[in-house]
Amino acid sequence: MQFDRERLDALMQAMGLTPTEIEERLAFLRITESDLNARDVIESALDSAWIRNEPEFYGHLFRFRETKDKLLDVDNLNRLNEAHRDYFKALGTATFSRDYIQGRLRVGWIHRQIELEPKWYLGAFSFVFEHTLPEIWNRCQGDRDAVLASIATFYKLIQFDITLALDTYFFVEQQSTRRAEDQRALAHHALESSINGVFMVDMREPRCPITYVNPAFERITGMTDQSALGLPCVFESPDQKPLTDNPTLFEVQKAIQAGRDGLTLLNGVDHEGQPFWIELFLSPLQGDHGEVTHQVGILHDVTKNKQAEHQLKYQATHDALTRIPNRSYLDSALGRAMQAADRDRKEVAVLFLDLDRFKVINDSLGHSSGDELLRQVAKRLQSCLREQDLVSRLGGDEFVILATQLEANTAQYVAEKILVTLEPPFEIFGQTLYISSSIGISLYPNDGADQDELLAFADAAMYSAKTAGRNTFRFYASGMNAAVREELELENDLREAVERESFELYYQPKLDTVSGRMVGMEALIRWHHPRRGWVSPAEFIPLAESTGLIVRIDTWVLEEAVRQLSAWKKLGQALVPIAVNVSAREFASGNVLARIEQLIGRSGLPADLLELEITETTLMQDVDGTAPLLSALKKLGVGLAVDDFGTGYSSLNYLKRLPIEVLKIDQSFVSDIGTDEDDTTIVSAVIALAHSLRMKVVAEGVETEAQAAFLKEQGCDMSQGYLYSRPLPADELLAFWRRR
Ligand SMILES: Nc1nc2c(ncn2[C@@H]2O[C@H](COP(=O)(O)O[C@H]3[C@@H](O)[C@H](n4cnc5c(=O)[nH]c(N)nc54)O[C@@H]3COP(=O)(O)O)[C@@H](O)[C@H]2O)c(=O)[nH]1
């Protein structure tokens, strides 16, 4: 520490050492002018005593442990040595000036700083005193009065000096004590007002009681200091029975018992059943010999942070609508399930579930009904599965069920159970809804080796279940993926095409076999796919049928065909009937009659210009149910033809009961005319039998002159085929028509 003038001035002022005070001290010691006369003797005696005895002085100091310890520190030694020299030099001069006074203060201050107690300081003085007296004796040359006067002066100077040094020593000590007390008070205040709980455990006492807790500790643990203080932190029995019924404190005790230091996260459930999370910082305090005397613990309540963290985690892993796990959760759960299955030699089944026709429900009843349905589906799924199984939602109407720890061949029971569970009706905002679902199943380890693969395969199997007619399940089979994906893509595109009505209608002429005149035509749909080009109806019509889109397609075709007839009529063209294909679904929908009635009525065209081609298979599905509808259509004037005749359950007997007017011999028979004897015979027989039932016959797929000649010879009424014309766009058909 630097003893600069400024600090010494401040010290003097703080100690109240004003000139008046100094004078008072001198007066009290009765230091007079005569004393000042003796200063020369004393100064020179002191000087030579110091020079002669300095080594012995330090030798003396080194004989005592405490002084020796201080002097072993070279800095201390140098500082003392310098101070001593200046000090003794100045003592003899005794000017009592400001510098002189401050020199005395400096000595007291240094002793306090190096913590050399006054006893050593006074002792050292007596050493100097003892060695100075003979020197005074020598200088006074036996003059008794001069010796006594010098000794008296010397003694007074020492008194003045020692008093100042001791005053300084104690003043500085008092100051540092006060500072330490202030700091202690501040630290205590900080502890008491800390938002963190602080406690102290005495590790020297048996069972380590708590000896201090701050108010925040009381707030966090819910305990008063009276109930916490003295509570032991060491368990009596190894089974760690709670030493307190306070859950937080019990966790603290466990951490201390375990001798944990550093950071520990405690969590439990409080008295009100609420979960808590508390960070506990434990730091051991060591005694002089390195033994742990105390544990200081700091409790930081992080419950709110943890709750926020959990909330975020929950949101990241759960579906907001149904509150069941989402894709991210599923991924991790599937990973864990696969590991467990490896270990236990069990199976994991991934069941990909998609609600059938959910879009229709959503579009027709509104999104809130759709949302409610999804919530109820999630609940039902959860209720029908085992606890270890997982129901998750990927989005939309797609759910994935993870059935774990399965014995081989049991996944199908899970799928069946799910289908049955979804069978009973759902009550959605007062409406009763029946739904079904399609489920695809992939199995680990058989089908795939990672999560993505298993999900993709289950997804593919689900689409296979959809194309198989819905409300069913399918296991994944290799190759399913690509085919199903393609079909799915096509289905999506077809939906879009239906929405946008991006189809065209082509027309294939039907010619009178004898005259060659165009007596009718068949409307055939065409779809120009934006990427794939023309897609054959043979490809997309079955897909439209399985997805239900065929109903909207058939409606569009009917309307477009009637619109085109009206357009030709406006052009002054003498009209011929137009035949339109009607799918089994449309036929079964119950709307055909009303729709056609409305259409014909609106167009003002005669009903007999419209002919419906219904496949033989469709008709045979429900002859009794179909008959009234056909009769009503017939009554309306609409023509009815059996399409693809000969490919289904051919029974003219049944046909007799239906008001059919035309039979279209399937092109597979026509193409074999002349090459396959059986098919040639069938063609002849069909023509003869149809005529016997007063029906007309159309041969479709006529491609060669030989086929045409044979049909003419057999009396077939009409022919249709590439030999005459391919299906044509409306304007080209008109040109063909006009030529005939
Ligand atoms: N519900 C609806 N079904 C429709 C509609 N349009 C067509 N279809 C059905 O799709 C299947 C395939 O039809 P398409 O590719 O149009 O084939 C038709 C003709 O192009 C084809 N045809 C005609 N002449 C010949 C020929 O000489 N050779 C040859 N190889 N093919 C020929 O035959 C199909 C006519 O079929 P059909 O209806 O049985 O008379 C088909 O099953 C269509 O029915 C539609 O709008 N709605």
UniProtKB/TrEMBL annotation:
Hydrolase as a keyword of this entry, yes or no, is no
Q: Which reaction does it catalyse?
A: 3',3'-c-di-GMP + H2O = 5'-phosphoguanylyl(3'->5')guanosine + H(+)
| Segments forming domain PAS | 183-236
Instruction: Tell me the Gene Ontology biological-process terms attached to this UniProt entry.
Output: cellular response to nitric oxide
Supply the alphabetized keyword list.
c-di-GMP
Q: Name one Pfam family in it.
A: EAL
User: Which GO molecular function annotations are given, in alphabetical order?
Assistant: cyclic-guanylate-specific phosphodiesterase activity; heme binding; oxygen binding
| Cofactor(s) needed for function | Mg(2+)
**Cross-referenced PROSITE patterns, in alphabetical order?**
EAL, GGDEF, PAC, PAS
Q: Which domain of life is it from?
A: Bacteria
Report the SUPFAM superfamilies cross-referenced here: EAL domain-like (SSF141868), Globin-like (SSF46458), Nucleotide cyclase (SSF55073), PYP-like sensor domain (PAS domain) (SSF55785)
The protein's name is Diguanylate cyclase DosC
